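Write out the 3D structure for:
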Amino acid sequence: MASKFSNVENLLIITRDRFLVRESIAGNSSAFATLMYLYKKRVEVIAKRFFSNQTDIDDFVQEVFIKVFKNLETYKGQSKFSTWLTRIAFNTGINYKTRSKETGSLLTEDTDAISSPYESPEERVIKEITRDAIKSAISELPEKYSHCVEMHFFLDMTYEDISETTGIPVNTIKTHIFNAKKILYEKLKEYKYDK
């Protein structure tokens, strides 16, 4: 039953996004502002993969949305808008990376936003140590694995969406994620918590 709801939800999102794109192309600035509102967080998360400075992140987000706006007419609706937008953001980040070689991780301190006010200080420290261990382990993965892992787990992208974004075949992405999980398991098994 849950898959029926997610299919309906996906259809509604696709329909909404296509409508907003059409309206944006027609000159409706509030439609584009809505698209920016809906997807700004996604672009910020990608930006944090390439930048650690908030000013650079903000500039990156602005640059990506300018590119999106200028290229809206090229969006054909064959993929989800979020996938198309992610591809633009990812390629913009990769272009920057080839120029600078400094990169971060999608696993950032924003994970504090999900902490509970009912956590004890000990639980917060454990969460911070765990987050840092995961961040460190992911940073040590081969780049081809870390990109796929971060898109799949932190951007909640499907294998197909990652394939459309990166140009890597779906089966290769599955293999990269499988291999990355094995590596991460080995690196993080000392942090396993048994009740």
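The radius of gyration is 18 Å.
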